[in-house]
Write a structure and sequence with these properties.
CATH topology of the largest domain: TIM Barrel
Strand order of the largest sheet: 9-8-7-6-5-4-3-10-11-12
Number of domains: 3
Number of helices: 19
Bound molecules: iron/sulfur cluster
CATH architecture of the largest domain: Alpha-Beta Barrel
CATH superfamily of the largest domain: Aldolase class I
Strand content: 5-15%
Helix content: 40-55%
Structural class: alpha/beta
Largest sheet: 10 strands, mixed
Shape: globular
Radius of gyration: 21 Å
């Protein structure tokens, strides 16, 4: 679905009569959302729904889309979930920029804090599992809540998610619901057997952390020989046909390694390279944070590399959208969507641009605590307090902090920046530096000098 089609749907759903009818289609019947079933029938030439068929046909005519292509896509349950989520967002939040889906597109779920490594910069300060991590039964209830609420994808993270004993049971349950499943791992457990197990359970996307070339990576991880183990894991995953992403958290320690790491990503045949936006939380030291001009240079390098190769060189730094636009590209990389799913939805453009915390995605901790983002340790709720998906959806729509985070116009400094809808600054960084998630983002080259002025005035 393109951004233009969303605008069309938005305009149609803006009509109170159509809105009422579409709202009715978002109700659940016999365990599933009516609209999801209708879309499946449409994709399989099995009827559909007169109003919806008309909207789709109009959209295809106006924007020159092809019905067969759309039907092919809608045969994929993840696509249908995504579609329903977009429509539900239009019904509940209206046509706003940036777009807010009816339910998070992505939940990053730290399923355990058990980890076989102890990295210097780990945001989750992982190592040993927490005493209050969700049991299997509780985790399965969480999946039911998320799936029924219409969540499109879940990325398991940690700690090391593959250490969780019931990991594959949780994956299977999500797949039964048609939810897209991704895994973020340190790569050391990705044996040939493990990657084939992941594949057979329907995991398509694996993100593997590599935080530098050999010397730097081993210094970060504190274990000699670990670099080769990670590279073996990457090769195993690529050979198994998984979509592989190398993720690197850019800090002062590995800044110099990044250009060569990009070449390495190409050589290894991965599809994605994700440059993470370092935020000093958890075990992360503030002195490791990049200077804004170094970050800017790195993002420009990344963008130029992206243009010359088949690897998707992306960044979770929200300013990457500005860098891309300034480089006159039509592609707007966005933050924290699952890249494979994001590839399918990339043309949503500015509707999904910028910092996705509390707007496009949420972070779930191993004990059920909900944060706006994995780098943003602000407690919002605990999912165990919800008895069903309706409770979760009420929280998603009404929580005060989530509402604040969606309001890009009210941000300090970013609020009057023309990139606010495609960037909006990193709210976790503002929170980490100033304990105020609505303040200016000191990581941005455009905002930094203004922040310094404000702080100096405050001190005077
Ligand atoms: S001022 Fe804010 S919205 Fe503008 S580019 Fe910088 S971080 Fe992004
Ligand atoms: S707060 Fe936003 S930009 Fe910052 S790390 Fe989280 S999702 Fe990314």
């Amino acid at each position: 679905m393109t951004g233009k089609m969303i605008e069309l749907f938005g305009a149609m759903v803006g009509n109170p009569i159509v809105r009422k009818r579409v709202k009715g289609l978002l109700e659940r019947e016999n365990g599933s959302v009516k609209l999801e079933r209708i879309l499946r029938d449409y994709a399989e030439d099995n009827g559909g729904h007169p109003v919806l068929n008309k909207i789709i046909d109009t959209g295809l005519k106006v924007f020159g889309g092809n019905a067969d292509d759309l039907k092919n896509r809608l045969r994929d349950p993840v696509w249908r979930r995504g579609f329903v989520n977009v429509i539900s967002g239009l019904v509940h939040f209206g046509l706003r920029k940036p777009f807010v889906p009816g339910s998070p597109f992505l939940i990053v779920w730290d399923v355990t804090y058990a980890c076989n490594l102890k990295c210097r910069h780990c945001y989750s300060t992982a190592g040993r599992p927490w005493d209050d991590e969700l049991s299997t039964e509780e985790a399965l209830s969480v999946i039911e809540i998320l799936a029924d609420a219409g969540v499109t994808s879940v990325a398991f993270s940690g700690g090391e998610p593959l250490l969780r004993k019931d990991f594959f049971e949780l994956v299977s349950r999500l797949k039964e619901y048609g939810v897209y499943v991704a895994v973020a791992t340190n790569g050391t457990l990705l044996t040939e057997e493990m990657v084939s197990r992941l594949k057979s359970h329907g995991v398509e996307y694996v993100q593997i952390s590599l935080d530098g070339l050999r010397e730097t990576h081993e210094k970060f991880r504190g274990i000699a020989g670990i670099y080769d183990r990670v590279l073996d894991g990457i090769k195993n995953a690529v050979n198994a046909g998984l979509t592989v992403c190398i993720s690197t958290t850019a800090t002062k320690m590995n800044l110099r390694d990044v250009p060569e790491m990009m070449n390495l990503a190409e050589k290894l045949g991965v599809k994605w390279f994700m440059l993470y936006n370092y935020i000093p939380t958890g075990r992360g030291d503030i002195d490791l944070d990049l200077e804004p001009h170094d970050r800017e240079r790195l993002l420009r390098l990344l963008w130029n590399k992206m243009k010359e190769t088949d690897v998707n060189f992306m960044s979770t730094a929200p300013y990457y959208a500005r860098v891309a636009i300034e480089s006159e590209s039509s592609v707007i990389p966005t933050h924290f969507y699952n890249p494979e799913l994001g590839g399918r939805l990339r043309s949503l453009g500015e509707f999904i641009g910028g910092c996705g915390c509390g707007r496009f995605y949420l972070a779930l901790r191993a004990n059920g605590d909900i944060n706006p983002c994995v780098f943003f340790p602000l407690w919002l709720e605990n999912i165990k307090n919800f008895s069903d998906s309706e409770d979760f959806l009420h929280f998603w729509r009404e929580n005060r902090i989530l509402r604040d985070l969606r309001d890009k116009d009210s941000l300090e400094i970013c609020g009057d920046c023309r990139y606010r809808y495609v960037c909006g600054g990193c709210r976790a960084r503002s929170y980490a530096y100033f304990n105020d998630y609505m303040s200016g983002d000191p990581g941005c080259i455009m905002a930094n000098h203004r922040i310094k002025k404000i702080k100096l005035t405050e001190r005077a």
